[in-house]
Amino acid sequence: MPVQRFIQVGTGGFGGYWVSGVMPRLIDELDLARAVAIADLNPATFPNAMAKYHLPEDKCYTDAKKAFEENEADFAIIVVPPAHHESIVNLALEHDMHILSEKPIADSMEACCRIYKKVKQAGKKMAVTMSHRFDQDKQTLERLVKSGEYGDLDYLVGRNTWTCRKFPTWGAFRYEIPDTLLIEGTVHHFDIMRSLAGSNAKSVYAKTWNAKWGDFKGDSQALVTLEMENGVKVFYEGAKCNASQLNGWCQDYWRAECGKATLELDNRRLRVLTGNLHNNATIQEQPLEQQPAWMNPWLAELFLNWLNDGPEPPNSLEDNVQCAALLFAAIESAHTGQVVDVQEYLKRNLEA
User: Fold this and answer.
1) 189-235: per-residue pLDDT in tens?
2) Three-class HEC string of the chain
3) Whether this model's pTM surpasses 0.85
4) Which domains does the chain have, with CATH numbers?
5) What is the pLDDT of residue 118?
């Protein structure tokens, strides 16, 4: 299988996780990828990337444009703030490269749609690493829901609540941006809703606000109701300013109400429930499925297989533009107080 060459833009912060925790397995163990250059504004991040990616110093750039001009590669990895995604996508397309990007596609629906159209017109492949949907516990639940063993799915309930009310518990920048819960947290949960339901969203109504005891400038609490195109209903509770943390990152609560059983995931514990819990109930613990990699390491592997003529991964741009539409439609709903037709919202923005 051909080794795919890449340039990574962003090697500090979460980019450092890519350098140390995502790509080494694909480079050293599976021999699927090889770094040819990296770029970051902060040269202090270069020694780690040089060691993990087996790069000389002259392949480390503070100017991304120069990195692309001086090195041939098959794809780009983008791990920079969302407001800068489009400029790096433009560089990759100018140099005939495929794209693997951190979430979201971009920082606005308009930019997401521009990127979508540019990538499609160029005929290149792009995937977005919306990682939490691809964690071990959510994937196990999704596979149970879709197995058919428990009947049709009627509705979903999701809950993720945290005790992050005081600056800078959840990262300093998140206390300054608008719609912080939806943009930085619920975006992952929207993707999980879509995967569990097996459908894109039809409509969304979001009520968001800020608790008076929190330090956030943007709304940090939300109750959201959705209807999916296949008729499945979803209710979601998200909060960053609660007094107790019931389900934080990677400790999700999801309940899938199916025709023959209730499937409940809570803090990485998965149960199948039937009957009256107070009288002759059946409660079956379900082990989480096992595989070599989950989340970003798995998604990067799926992307490389796609470049080598394998199947399109479930986090491709074609799929993820639906997640972007749901996110920004929910923000519009929160701002207007109205139910938003998600598919009409996406169509309107793609045609703009």
Assistant:
1) 999 999 999 999 999 999 999 999 999 999 999 999 999 999 999 99
2) CCCEEEEEECCCCHHHHHHHHHHHHHHHHCCCEEEEEEECCCHHHHHHHHHHHCCCHHHEECCHHHHHHHCCCCEEEECCCHHHHHHHHHHHHHCCCEEEEECCCCCCHHHHHHHHHHHHHHCCCEEEECHHHHCHHHHHHHHHHHCCCCCCEEEEEEEEECECCCCCCCCHHHHCCCCHHHHHHHHHHHHHHHHHHCCCEEEEEEEEECCCCCCCCCCCEEEEEEEECCCCEEEEEEECECCCCCECCCCCEEEEEECCCEEEEECCEEEEEEEECCEEEEEEEECCCCCCCCHHHHHHHHHHHHHCCCCCCCCEHHHHHHHHHHHHHHHHHHHHCCCEEHHHHHHHHHHC
3) yes
4) 4-132+295-313 (3.40.50.720), 136-291 (3.30.360.10)
5) 98
